[in-house]
Amino acid sequence: MDVGLFDFDLPEDRIALRPVSPRDAARLLVVRPDAPEPLEDRGIRDLVSLLQPGDALVLNDTRVIPSRLRGRRYRGADSARIEIMLHKRESDDRWLAFARPAKKLALGETVDFDSEGASNACELGRLQAEVIGKSEGGEVELRFSLTSAYLDEAIARLGELPLPPYIAGKRPTDSADTTDYQTNFACNDGAVAAPTAGLHFTPELLAELEARGVSRHFVTLHVGAGTFLPVKADDTEDHRMHAEWGTVSAETATALNEVKARGGRIVCVGTTSLRLIESAAAEDGTIRPFSGDTAIFITPGYRFRVVDMLVTNFHLPRSTLFMLVCAFCGLDMMKRAYAHAIAAKYRFYSYGDGSLLFRAG
User: Fold this and answer.
1) Of 175, 205, 323, 333, which is least surrounded by CB within 10 A?
2) Considering just the CA atoms, what is the radius of gyration of the chain in Å?
3) Mean pLDDT for the chain?
């Protein structure tokens, strides 16, 4: 499909730079494509009445790590500052990352992430990485001098929280973001971007949903920095998705299959949960245990196998996530919904308001 079909104009003042407080006070646009009046303005707390007993929430419990690293490359007397954004772990000591500026790095070169105080750094704790691979778009593969938990500790010590560029370009990251940019149920380290629809869910809201008879189930998808990359191709067929690692346990798969068998609805919180559940689904709609990489790219025409409803934030124009919601509800319906959201001054993107989407058809 023509990528231009997924474009729209968004005023700068619609981009949320901070979340609302409390988190579940955000607005919620309900989109029912098959209803006579498909758009309804509600609030996140209204999920308690909008969902039904027997429905099942699927939440992504990944935890964001401080994945932006700043270092220096030395070449004889010459040196250059390098910024690294980790986006996918490949092994105990290897990460795929985006480098800026990538052209200053060559295969075999070393980046020193303790460069500012390297002469005083303890060699045991000093963090370096060798460039062992390069590809287009600034992606590099790095093999670090530390491994496993030692590498994790060094990244936590040296790294910065990776706020999305549409926020980081307007204000500095601060201490509030360390909690604001994590879901309340985050527990598995590995993401470099938050599953932002989950940011709306407070313990109080989850408790009310449980009392309503809505069960909750957790999956893990480590969101990569590729989620921020624009689609540069003119046609969706030419876009390459970056793989992300995820897992659906046998226990969760069984529980969700039982929900479907009883007539309950699968409600994914976030496009990350949806992409993972659809990756784990068989042709007949049965959810199987899953552990591995997924690079599923969902565009209009995709046949959804499992997911009935989606809680999600408002996405960037020409993005793979906007394409996904258009596949879920229909392109014309989502363009109408986004036009309504812009006119009604909904807050967009990671710290913005949410929407509840019912699958078309």
Assistant:
1) 175
2) 21
3) 93
